Amino acid sequence: MTATIETSLGTMLVNLYDETPLHRDNFIKLAQEGFYDELLFHRVIKNFMVQTGDPESKNADRHKHLGAGGPGYTIPAEIVFPQLFHKRGALAAARQSDEVNPEKASSGSQFYIVQGQSMSDEELDQFENSSRYAKEKEVFQQIANTMRSQIVALQKANDTDGLNALRDSIYEETQKKVDAMNPFHFTTEQRETYKTLGGTSFLDGNYTVFGEVIEGLDVIDKISDVKTDSQDRPHDDIKIIRITINE
């Protein structure tokens, strides 16, 4: 299924993924209802992404704070990673942060389109290492929590050697568990895509990617090139004219 997104700076054709049916069907429903008509691209960050879908942005005052609006519901996460990733042109659902949204549920209407930038092998290696470190930290804490009473006893006894030995033991177990989880590595195809087409790899695995721009990538660049204020809102409004679902 494809959709045509007409904006005040040009038209994009997007492919909606069947792998994310909840997001696909919700996008189609809202588009057919005219929900997106006249909404602004309220958040634009060059070399990163352009975001829209806040119903409060329609005819919004220049000083109105935008980005919190929605249709009154969220959508369960459909993170199909690494198959669907944040390459240039990726269409993905915005959401609230993990602190208040640990399930990574998506906004019911707000979405962003990735502009991103090309990345080197070194940068991609660093992302892989960071992903592994985050997983190691999580697993280490989980194991340590199961040994809380033993740790407290060693602390009360001021047994530094015992604490160090226990730490090393937990670390060794952590490495084994993380290795068994098959730590994330970019595929050859993903690496090539990020190095040539570009994207935002640091968002991978945390947001639902539910489509991609297949025509009109230059429109993303036009939107990204506009001047913005301290809230990343363009000085001159950029609107969605309409979104048409192509049967």
Give an overview in words.
There is one protein chain. By secondary structure, the protein is α+β, with helices and mostly antiparallel strands. The protein folds into two domains: 2-118 and 197-246, Beta Barrel (Cyclophilin); 121-180. 35% of the residues lie in helices and 19% in strands. The chain is built from six helices and ten strands. The chain has helices at residues 21-33, 121-146, 148-156, 160-180, 188-196, 217-224, and strands spanning 2-7, 10-16, 41-45, 49-52, 74-75, 90-93, 106-107, 111-114, 209-215, 240-246. It has an eight-stranded antiparallel beta sheet with strand order 3-4-8-6-9-2-1-10, covered by helices on one side. A hairpin with a 2-residue loop joins strand 1 and strand 2. The longest helix is centred in the middle third of the chain and has 26 residues, at 121-146. The radius of gyration is 22 Å and the shape is elongated. The mean pLDDT is 95.
N- to C-terminal separation? 7 Å
* Helix/strand structural class: alpha+beta
In this structure, how is the largest beta sheet organized? 8 strands, antiparallel
User: What order do the strands of the largest sheet run in, or round the barrel if closed?
Assistant: 3-4-8-6-9-2-1-10
Q: What is the 3D shape?
A: elongated
The CATH homologous superfamily of the largest domain is termed: Cyclophilin-like
Number of helices: 6
